[in-house]
Design goal:
By secondary structure, this protein is of the alpha+beta class. Helices cover 55% and strands 11% of the residues. It has helices at 2-10, 16-24, 27-37, 40-43, 98-114, 148-156, 169-173, 177-186, 193-203, 205-213, 217-227, 232-245, 248-268, 274-284, 289-296, 300-309, and strands at 46-53, 67-76, 81-89, 122-129. A 4-stranded mixed β-sheet has the order 1-2-3-4, with helices on both faces. It is elongated and about 90 Å long.
Length: 310
């Protein structure tokens, strides 16, 4: 009798979600459950003769004390794979974010199938709730948003596609300031970046002035991007293209941008003496002396002195 009492003390209480899962892992119980609760139109697509319980769980570790899941893999009558995702909420009151969690877990299940290619499988979500308080959480994802109908429209209809390759250049140019970015991105894959710059500055002369008024939002970034794509031997050509197409004032502003880039790179490399180090760096890259003068503000004679020290 004492041994029996000791054995009872060692028993760990079974949680209600564990009870549900233990029973629902039996195919007979699972089939009865699904026959009763699946939406009719979805159930009519399925062959419930064969049901497989998946071993995976998508519930985060921090939520496993109050949530658990069970996943059934089922074949459709057309022999396609489909799933039923059952989430068990084992707590006294409903979770307001449950519809969000269901979507998240179903998307993770879908992600598993992306590597296989082809279409994603159908997934039916079911929630088992046995709490003590009345269930009053939103039943769909859209009711969690501030404007449900707008959220549903935005997130379930086809997304807006901005296909630059299908846009004629003339249409892009009409967009003025924004057109600068679209044109650059559309042609950015061509091998000759300097040719891209030549064409870009030819077609967007007026837009460059708009960009100037906005602090060179686009031009600065274009130069930074191009610098990583153009070899050191062709840096001089790039500077000559910029000088040819920009006014003297614009040119100086852009040169300051290039200078700042060198400064930033210098800081990253541990260089703590700015302009002189920049000039030396550019001389070592065989940059044009006039170009170095414009970037650094040094005179030609000062640059010549630095060059002699190399």
């Amino acid at each position: 009798m004492r041994k029996e009492r000791k054995a009872r003390k060692k028993l760990v209480p079974i949680k209600s979600d564990a009870l549900f899962k233990k029973i629902m892992e039996d195919v007979v119980a699972a089939r009865e459950f699904l026959e009763f609760y699946l939406p009719v139109d979805f159930k009519n697509l399925l062959n419930l003769a064969e049901i497989r319980v998946e071993k995976e769980s998508f519930v985060e570790d921090g939520l496993k004390k109050r949530l658990s899941d069970i996943i059934y893999a089922i074949k459709t009558k057309d022999n396609e794979e489909a799933f039923v995702y059952v989430l068990v909420e084992s707590q006294s009151e409903p979770d307001y974010w449950m519809s969000f969690r269901l979507w998240k877990y179903m998307l993770l299940l879908s992600e598993r199938h992306m590597k296989k290619g082809g279409k994603l499988p159908l997934i039916a979500p079911l929630l088992m709730y046995n709490g003590t308080k009345k269930y009053n959480s939103p039943r769909n994802l859209w009711d969690l948003f501030t404007i449900p109908q707008q959220a549903k429209k935005l997130m379930t209809e086809d997304y807006k596609l901005i296909d630059l390759q299908s846009m004629p250049d003339d249409e892009i140019k009409k967009k003025q300031h924004l057109g600068m970015l679209e044109y650059f991105l559309k042609h950015i894959h061509q091998r000759d970046m300097l040719k891209l710059w030549e064409d870009f500055l030819t077609h967007f002369k007026e837009m460059v002035l708009i960009d100037k008024e906005n602090g060179y939002i686009y031009l600065k970034q274009f130069i930074w991007y191009t610098d990583s794509k153009v070899s050191e031997e062709r840096q001089k050509e790039l500077s000559e293209i910029l000088i040819e197409h920009l006014s003297e004032k614009e040119e100086k502003n852009i040169m300051r941008t290039i200078a700042q880039k060198y400064i930033d790179e210098g800081i990253e490399q541990g260089i703590d003496k700015g302009v002189e180090k920049i000039a030396v760096n550019m001389l070592m890259q065989n940059a044009d002396v006039k170009f170095i003068a414009k970037v650094t503000g040094y005179s030609i004679s000062q640059i010549a002195e630095l060059k002699n020290k190399l």
